[in-house]
Amino acid sequence: MSVTLGQLATLVEGKLLGDAQLDITGAAIIRDSQPGEITLADRPELAKELARSQAAAVITNGEFAPAGMPVILVEDVHVAFAKVVALFRPSLTKMTPGVHPSAVVAESATIAPDASIGPMVIIGEGVTIAAGAIIHSGAQISAGCSIGAGTTIFPGVVLYENTIVGAGCILHAASILGAYGFGYDSSSGKHVLSAQLGNVVLGDNVEIGAATTIDRGTYGPTVIGEGTKVDNQVMIAHNCRIGRHNLICSQVGIAGSTSTGDYVVMAGQVGVRDHVHIGDGAILGAKAGISCDIGAGQNVIGAPAISAKEKKLELALVSKLPEMRKQLKALLTRVDQLEKEEELRKTA
């Protein structure tokens, strides 16, 4: 397909500097752009790379494009470019509404007429699936689950009993929600599984990455707040309460009964112990080991985690240790020499 540059400018509500009738056939980042395609540049440092590219036009937030290259000026380059990409590459997750003949659906399940149920999906008793939801092949939605409007569930996802998924959520392949928590009573000398009466609740617009696992609560729910995005291969244990709009990167492990505020960021491979609270807006650096509460707005790193400012100072000092060792060795040699001279003076 192709659209005119003028049409794209209208789509992104940008200011056009160039030929409105120029045909645009696609969108790509600078290094991958081909003739006829539009690209994006969000800072002047990209001007040279832009000049070497084959792009026909660019979406920018400043007038730094090469002379003669048509420009669409916008405030937020990435939001605008996402709209353009969506135009040229429509979502591949859309399916024809209805239930595939190979799906197994309990009689008591309620499915909106415009929901889409793919091949080999299993839907249990009492499940409700709201308008526009898409369930891809091989997913298993167990009894009592609720799927919100416009939610997409990719192949192989498993929802245990009574899992509640809000509207506009995305659950990527092989994610598992609602498995039993890792909690045992060992008072008898044996490890006996604790009560597992809770469930998992996702707010609206939550995204769960591939192969991520979220365990059900012991008595109440494990909660993932509205707008939170969870990356691939993350483990969130029983009874956790994750706030709104958190960003949780790959391979994070969060132990049971931990809670977070809103807008918390956890970088890759962060480990959080049980029964701690992470305050609003806190940032946990990659591989941070969290063993205590973290206050709102704190930026921590390391294991055990300390403030990023302290850690940077520590690393700066560590880098100076070899030179400090040389200086100390020289000082000790000098002190030894002075002591010998003093001893000779006394005996003279």
From TrEMBL:
It is an enzyme of class 2 (transferase). Pfam families: Hexapep (PF00132), LpxD (PF04613). CDD domains: LbH_LpxD. The active site is at residue 238. Keywords: Acyltransferase, Lipid A biosynthesis, Lipid biosynthesis, Lipid metabolism, Repeat, Transferase. It catalyses: a UDP-3-O-[(3R)-3-hydroxyacyl]-alpha-D-glucosamine + a (3R)-hydroxyacyl-[ACP] = a UDP-2-N,3-O-bis[(3R)-3-hydroxyacyl]-alpha-D-glucosamine + holo-[ACP] + H(+). Its EC number is 2.3.1.191. InterPro entries: Hexapep, LpxD, Trimer_LpxA-like_sf, UDP_GlcNAc_AcTrfase_non-rep. GO terms for cellular component: membrane. GO terms for molecular function: N-acyltransferase activity; UDP-3-O-[(3R)-3-hydroxyacyl]-glucosamine N-acyltransferase activity. Residues 22-87 form the UDP-3-O-[3-hydroxymyristoyl] glucosamine N-acyltransferase non-repeat region domain. Pathway: Bacterial outer membrane biogenesis; LPS lipid A biosynthesis. GO terms for biological process: lipid A biosynthetic process. SUPFAM superfamilies: Trimeric LpxA-like enzymes (SSF51161). Gene3D superfamilies: Hexapeptide repeat proteins (2.160.10.10), MurE/MurF, N-terminal domain (3.40.1390.10). PANTHER family: UDP-3-O-ACYLGLUCOSAMINE N-ACYLTRANSFERASE, UDP-3-O-ACYLGLUCOSAMINE N-ACYLTRANSFERASE 1, MITOCHONDRIAL-RELATED. Homotrimer. Belongs to the transferase hexapeptide repeat family. LpxD subfamily. Catalyzes the N-acylation of UDP-3-O-acylglucosamine using 3-hydroxyacyl-ACP as the acyl donor. Is involved in the biosynthesis of lipid A, a phosphorylated glycolipid that anchors the lipopolysaccharide to the outer membrane of the cell. This is UDP-3-O-acylglucosamine N-acyltransferase. It comes from Blastopirellula retiformator. The lineage of its organism: Bacteria, Pseudomonadati, Planctomycetota, Planctomycetia, Pirellulales. The gene is lpxD.
